[in-house]
Design a protein that fits this description.
The chain is mainly α and 198 residues long. The chain folds into two domains: 98 residues, Orthogonal Bundle (Rna Polymerase Sigma Factor, Chain: A); 87 residues, Arc Repressor Mutant, subunit A. It is built from twelve helices and no strands. Helix 3 packs parallel to helix 6 and helix 11 crosses helix 12.
């Protein structure tokens, strides 16, 4: 994020404040899509959630610019998390009792786990290997859901949200070296979970 844009926003320039939020619109969309449950996507469009996040961020922007308690992307990520939880509660509680019986929301959506499986591991496109690929993706999806939340989160940020190391470090409030270490650890744990299932 350009430093001068933040400085102009702090000085109260409305156009800079709009530009600051708009700069992260694509990041917010990927964050929402990575976390929005499939059952909710049938009722709520990700762009509507992003719009709600941007409205919330605009309302809270004065407080953020005054105090700047954490990096900007990390602050936006907190608002995304609040919106996702609120959206899940609102829509799942209005669905059937079988959905209400679930005790907690998954850390990442099933769709994100499948996309992540495809991105992390190349697939042989031949029809004869289709069944093997599907079985492998199912096992990988289960392993991803079994990861510690912080491991799954860093993999989602890198491979689903397509954030770079600098952006992930900013969002999590850690160093780039720590991001690289978490990514390596997450991949090692994922490999270990996959090997234990064979």
């Amino acid at each position: 994020m350009p430093h001068d844009l933040m400085e102009r926003a702090i000085r109260g320039e409305e156009s800079a404040r709009h530009a600051l939020l708009d700069l992260h619109r694509d990041d917010l969309r990927r964050m929402v899509e990575a976390r929005l449950d499939r059952r909710i996507r049938m009722r709520v469009d990700a762009s509507d959630v992003v719009q709600d996040v941007l409205i919330d961020a605009w309302r809270r922007l004065d407080g953020y610019l005054r105090d700047r308690p954490l990096p900007f992307l990390a602050w936006l990520r907190q608002i995304v998390d609040e919106r996702i939880i609120d959206t899940h509660r609102r829509h799942i509680s209005s669905q059937s009792r079988s959905l209400q019986r679930e005790e907690r929301l998954p850390e990442i959506s099933n769709e994100s786990a499948v996309v992540l499986a495809r991105r992390l591991f190349t697939s042989d496109p031949s029809p004869s290997n289709c069944l093997v690929r599907k079985e492998f993706q199912g096992r990988l999806k289960q392993a991803l859901v079994s990861l510690l939340p912080e491991d799954g989160e860093v993999l989602v940020m890198r491979h689903i949200e397509l954030l770079g190391t600098v952006q992930i470090a900013s969002a999590l409030g850690i160093t780039e070296g720590a991001v690289k270490a978490r990514l390596l650890r997450a991949l090692q744990r994922l490999r270990g979970l996959m090997e234990s299932e064979t």
